[in-house]
Amino acid sequence: MTAHAIAVDVGGTDMKAALVAVGRDTARQLRHARRPTPRGSDGAATADLVVEAVAELVSELRSGADSVDAVGVVVPGVVDEARGVGVFSANLGWRDVPLRDRLAARIDLPLAFGHDVRAGGLAEARLGAARGMRDVVVLPIGTGIAAALVLDGRLYSGGGFAGEIGHIDVGHGEPCGCGSNGCVEAMASSAAVARRYRARTGRDVSGADVAAAVRTGDPDAQAVWQDAIDALARGLLVLITVAAPECVVLGGGFAQAGDLLVDPLRARLDGMLAAYHRRPHLKLAELGDTAGCLGAALLATEGLKTP
Amino acid sequence: MTAHAIAVDVGGTDMKAALVAVGRDTARQLRHARRPTPRGSDGAATADLVVEAVAELVSELRSGADSVDAVGVVVPGVVDEARGVGVFSANLGWRDVPLRDRLAARIDLPLAFGHDVRAGGLAEARLGAARGMRDVVVLPIGTGIAAALVLDGRLYSGGGFAGEIGHIDVGHGEPCGCGSNGCVEAMASSAAVARRYRARTGRDVSGADVAAAVRTGDPDAQAVWQDAIDALARGLLVLITVAAPECVVLGGGFAQAGDLLVDPLRARLDGMLAAYHRRPHLKLAELGDTAGCLGAALLATEGLKTP
């Protein structure tokens, strides 16, 4: 029942790769490798270099391994899994690159191609904080905020567009980088928290610094944090109303705030949920930065079951 | 490739039943029957009578039919398909009735049990306005507003709670029957449109009457209609942001307003959709009040494929 997959998680800075043993409800990294993500003169050149580097990582992890059944590769940005296309990556600069076909031409194993955040969400749902549950929303909170939806046990991507709750208007009225007002992200991303604290105090800090200041009783930090919790709760309420998950998993840099994030968010949500809402568990992500690779391995071995 | 199913759509007033031939992308009603929904002294008694009446309808449609492969029954209210339970019906009065098991004990054919609106949505997605598309939201607008979600070609119910966009807060601030403020339903249901027109004019009318008055240039009707379109557009924007459908199908009594509904809604949405949104087709439902039965037949024959 155990399959072996090579998983590659292409990030903006690093590429993480692993040989993963995937069982029924388990996944274990047997070996791993990491290298900087290569950069070309433009997005197309970067895509060429990334394809080459992925093929080399796969070859490296494959040598010496007993048998490898499949390869899973996940990339950032906007990804259309159905067409196998990297639609857009602000960080890596590519647009509409048929990455799945390009990778398949270089790798002679069954290949799955996906999105880093959604794959990480699938891993949290199957193996991490929400294991055993079928309807799960995984919400990494970092520079931006977008959810991965695992519905009836399967990743749902909506052509790459599903789960964009960072841009739900929750009524606070502040402008967002996207051009709209009131977006969850404009109040609750780690970048927004840092920016809003700086605006109040003149001090240049990170989102994590603000969380630390909340614990020491800094009133500016507490005010900014409260606004972030409120915007997040309103965004989650919308997500719960539409997608009705059994569990919401909070991840990304912000989740390192732990109970400082989960406790007030749960209290705020409890006050808003009505009889027509499913009441989800609220949990912290468990897999950290291995989620992407584990998710890529799950995608790879899932592909084996549906020829 | 053609299967034969008996479908029963239990409504608040009538029970509609049909013998349906289900092909790969088709469903055709061969015979049908209808009778009033029986009522007992309380919800439990009503459930008993409904189970009996469904069994009789099935028996009636089965006699003389060459062969019947399966039965599909759909009911209104809150339905948990996974557990096979009618959780709640305001109209029929039952609470937590294990209808699937009760029906299965009376009917010696493979049985599927579901929710009337979601089953109708599945029919519109597979056979009606959105045929050929995989990610579809079907939104009947009547006394209430709740969406059926067909994602990756499969009905998603979220334990019976998914798609409750009638109770998304879109910021208009008016109170809703649910106890919150600003709900889509409080401005855009046919009941809300009738109530708000009455409040302005003192005239007692239906939602359909208001639509007719919009066409004749009645300024009160136009104002009320414009508010409804705006609330609907904001609710749809949320749905699109989270669920990213390829197609939104508008149904229910309100959809009879046709272009009066679709054209301004499309224009309003066009002004709000951003690069991170999937742009869905906006269509009117095609199957009318046969959608529930056709959907029940689809559920019944789908059950045959997954033993």
TrEMBL record, chains A, B:
UniProt superkingdom: Bacteria
Pfam families assigned to the protein according to its UniProt record, in alphabetical order: ROK (PF00480)
Ranges in a coiled coil: none
Family membership: Belongs to the ROK (NagC/XylR) family.
Protein name: ROK family protein
Annotated source species: Saccharopolyspora elongata
